Amino acid sequence: MTLARVKALAVATATSAAALFGTAAQAVEIEYWQYFFDARVTAMEQLIENFQAANPEITVTMTHFPYADYRTKVAAAIPAGEGPDVVQLFYGWLNDYVAADLIQPLPADAFPAEEIDETFFPMVQAMKEGDQYWALPTAVRSLALFYNERLLEEAGVEPPTTLDEMVAAAKAMTKRDGAGNITQVGMTMGMTAQDHHWWREVLVRQFGGEPYLDDYRTVNYNSEAGIAALEFYAGMQEGDDAFSQVGFMDEPQAAFKAGRAGLHIDGSFRIGSLNNTRGLKWGVTELPATADGTRSNYSSYWVNAITTKAEGEKYDAAVKFMQYITSDEAMQVWLDVVGELPAKPSVGMTEANANNPVFGPFIRGLAYANTTKFADESGQRQLMVEMLERMTLQGMSAADSLAIAAESEQKLLNDYYASN
Prior knowledge:
By secondary structure, this protein is an alpha+beta fold. It has 2 domains: 184 residues, D-Maltodextrin-Binding Protein, domain 2 (3-Layer(aba) Sandwich), CATH 3.40.190; 202 residues, 3-Layer(aba) Sandwich (D-Maltodextrin-Binding Protein, domain 2), CATH 3.40.190. 47% of the residues lie in helices and 19% in strands. It contains 18 helices and 16 strands. Strands 1, 2, 3, 4, 7, 8, 9, 12, 13, 14, 15 and 16 form a 12-stranded mixed beta sheet that branches. A two-stranded antiparallel sheet has the order 5-6. The longest helix is centred in the N-terminal third of the chain and has 24 residues. It is globular and about 75 Å long.
């Protein structure tokens, strides 16, 4: 081999090595964490595959934990400089994650607040502070009224569209034994499930009130509207013509899945489990309106955020990944695989999605949905449970029990915001 050839080979080898090391230097790996739920894991695997195909220099590793352990794992990992660069969290946890310095605000150049305000459903604005967003969802949830097709047919009633029709249909589907005990409820009931959302954000508003003021920092349901809404709700299990019962078959969704309840208010996340319930023929419709057509709904969601662990090239990769998993394409994948609703009207309100017999009622409900900004969701839910128990177990009036709940919740909110 000539000297010139040796030199040329050396140069080529050095150039190839430089190119190799340059490519390696550009490669980056980030971690994504979410809680374990089969359909969510499947959907995210598909999104990660799509993202990596378009961004071969970025590898995304997904880790998931059982729901019961999830918050503890996240809270321990990030301060230690470990764990996720992008994390999934329930919207109601946002204040806690911000206060604990677990997440950082989304960069304004990649996530302009004005653009998000215009292109996402309004409820996501609960994730905004000032002119900056902290997190964004891939999908959102709303409530709707599930009905048992067989029980409706047996009772000779149609799926209700108003509260009055709902009451009439539920009474027609209620069954009792010889001693008068309810053996089949016309409608499920229970503040521990989704009813505390239905009462707070739907019934209170439909009866003419507003549940909170001052960006959900001031309780406002201790009013005539709140009393009327509570009397309506509690009345479902009162008197000889009661058509519901708190604690029937332990959980409302269990009663409906077992075919022992005619009507059931639940979230869009329930669709998957109902589809897998053998022998159950069910349908779904929008939440009943008042006689004059007043509608309301409640929306909740899980969001994705960039953690404080993400820095440098990992931060840049996390921003890119966040942009993809909040895109129209990702939202359609999530709807198809998980059954949760797109967070943008551009996806949710397409003719195919908005008129879908299963997803449609939930998607249409997003247009008039409200999202409660919780300080402590479990604590605030428990106050609603106790509010109803005082009426059921102690015979307290709706007005008196509501006043106690409002005072207790206001103290909870004052204490929370004083320390945060």
